[in-house]
Write a structure and sequence with these properties.
The complex is a heterodimer of chains A (204) and B (223). Chain A has helices spanning 2-7, 14-39, 54-63, 70-76, 90-102, 145-161, 167-203; strands at residues 44-51, 81-87, 106-113, 126-132, 136-144. Chain A is α+β, with helices and mostly antiparallel strands and 204 residues long. Chain B is built from eight helices and eleven strands. The chains are: A alpha+beta (204), B alpha/beta (223).
Chain lengths: 204, 223
């Protein structure tokens, strides 16, 4: 047992990493409860956390020309802890982001808004890197159900499209699908706003 | 550019075909209404020139059948000078224009040019306003980011860009974008304006839609 732990790229940090991940997951759960009170619905469709697997972490070190050490895995690479929060509506992505930042529990290292500026292939998501307990980095990806659907489907096709001989057409069609899904997301959000506004009017 | 020419007087038919050919059009001649329908079922045209008085099936009946098939090709009717009723019947049956006999050849050519130009020249290019581009082929709304619009959203955005200099009333929008949908209401317009506002923000554009249901809507720039 001790032997296996010593062989891990995470050294003996794995239990602590898991504990930190679970604390963040608990925090997200608290945020959901608070938001549910004001929205009348749970804004999160699903929420997953994982510790990056041994192989992927070693592979990432090699890709980035880093030595395969615990220092690299915990100090130079930021997604040993990874969380994906999938929301029903676009606005909820930003509300949850604000809750995380405003809580003051984390040091925010970096944020990338690939929703406001989608990647050229159409990928949309809100990425945050934060440091918890002054020790471990975690990457949080926030997105809507349709953005998650697109990313999942695109992932399935990623390796197949290279051998099809129609790569250019496939790439542009995947981008079109992403833009259509994004458009539908915004329409659904507008409809929810209309309903919420109407309900608030009724209360007055 | 392909034209179907229906005229039962053989000499006139031949003369019209020769002139249209000379102008670079590809012309199929027809000599009665039944031939018109046969051609229409076999081929596609950019313009149809249709005499009203023809054997077997007259021009008005042929035109009605063309429109019943949802063929929207521009049609010019050729009518006798005195027959106001024919002209009215022709236009009501779906003709886009008419010429009274006898007519000058150059007027026929000008009318064919006018009707075929409409389809080719309007509504195909990209429309631009401030930092936004609206692609008429793909319905893509783009600034820093891009989304794909639905048909109605596209038509509404197109209308706002074309009428950039003045505000457009909800009534005018309903009449243009929702002309075939009697159930559409000012609420519908308001919702689609809301969609567009959000989508303009989502593509990170500085362009906004100002106005409201009572004063109409107009594009403006955030400052």
């Amino acid at each position: 047992m001790e032997n296996t732990l010593n062989q891990s790229i995470y050294g003996d940090h794995k239990p602590a990493l898991e504990k930190t991940m679970n604390q963040i997951l608990m925090h997200i759960l608290e945020i959901r409860k608070q938001m549910e009170a004001s929205l009348g619905m749970d804004p999160v469709e699903h929420c997953l956390g994982r510790i990056k697997s041994e192989e992927s972490m070693r592979e990432k070190c090699r890709r980035k020309n880093l030595p395969e050490t615990t220092e690299s895995a915990l100090g130079s690479i930021y997604d040993a802890i990874g969380l994906r929060i999938v929301c029903a509506f676009v606005d909820d992505v930003y509300t949850i982001r604000d809750y995380i930042v405003d809580s003051g529990r984390y040091e925010i290292i970096n944020e990338k808004d690939y929703i406001r500026r989608a990647k050229p292939n159409g990928y949309r998501s809100y990425h945050m890197i934060l440091k918890a307990d002054g020790q471990y980095y975690a990457e949080i990806q926030l997105r809507t159900i349709s953005m998650d659907t697109w990313a999942a489907l695109e992932h399935h096709l990623k390796y197949k499209k290279k051998v099809s001989g129609r790569q250019e057409l496939i790439v542009s069609e995947l981008k079109r699908c992403a833009d259509e899904l994004a458009s539908t997301d915004l329409s659904m959000q507008t409809i929810r706003d209309m309903i919420l506004e109407y309900n608030n009017g009724e209360d007055d | 550019m392909k034209i179907l020419l229906a005229e039962d007087t053989k000499d006139l038919n031949r003369a019209l075909c020769a002139v249209l050919n000379h102008e670079g059009y590809d012309v199929d001649p027809a000599f009665d209404g039944e031939e018109v329908i046969e051609h229409i079922e076999r081929d596609s045209y950019d313009c149809i020139v249709l005499d009203i008085m023809m054997p077997k099936k007259d021009g008005i009946q042929a035109l009605k059948e063309i429109r019943e098939k949802n063929i929207i090709t521009p049609v010019i009717m050729l009518t006798a000078k005195s027959e106001v009723d024919d002209r009215v019947a022709g236009l009501d049956a779906g003709a886009d224009d008419y010429l009274t006999k006898p007519f000058a050849m150059k007027e026929l050519l000008a009318r064919v040019r006018a009707l075929t130009r409409r389809k080719a020249e309007y509504g195909e290019g990209d429309l631009k306003f401030n930092d936004v581009t609206l692609n008429a082929q793909t319905f893509e709304l783009a600034s820093e980011n891009s989304v794909r619009l639905s048909v109605k959203e596209f038509e509404l955005m197109q209308l706002l860009i074309i009428n950039r200099d003045h505000s457009v009333s909800a009534e005018y929008i309903l009449g243009n974008v929702w002309s075939r949908e009697p159930d559409a209401r000012p609420d519908t317009v308001w919702l689609y304006i809301s969609y567009l506002k959000r989508k303009l923000r989502a593509v990170a554009s500085e362009t906004q839609i100002a106005g409201d249901e009572n004063n109409g809507y107009i594009l403006s720039v955030k400052r």
